[in-house]
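Fill-in record for MT21D methyltransferase.
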Amino acid sequence: ANVTVTDLEELQELLMVNIENNKHLVTGSVRAKVLKWGEDVTEFQPPPDYILMADCIYYEESLEPLLKTLKDLTGPDTCVLCCYEQRTMGKNPEIERKYFELLQMDFELEKIPLDKHDEEYRSEDIHIMNIHRKQT
């Protein structure tokens, strides 16, 4: 695959270190780019086949920019896999509830059952969602 890994500007050096440390596993291409949620994503077009999200649901003020970015990045055939650790402390349960409520306005969600997760890494508090744009 040809992969673009994204994070904020201040984490680009760490992304490059991770790419370098894992280049022996790569059979396609990997590049690191800055992606700030809520901002212009035209340089990431056309829509990717897959978007992998890991632990992106944590700040209430980031929900709207994250959802805007997902809407802007996805096409009708884009598959979004969202993995997150369900947290029970503080405002986290409310933030997760709000995120999935807002997400369902434009996307269809399918929770991947725990028995389909990797045996070595599965955990009751780790959830994986298969997300697609709603058909218009």
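KEY FINDING: The chain has two domains: 1-34, 37-133.
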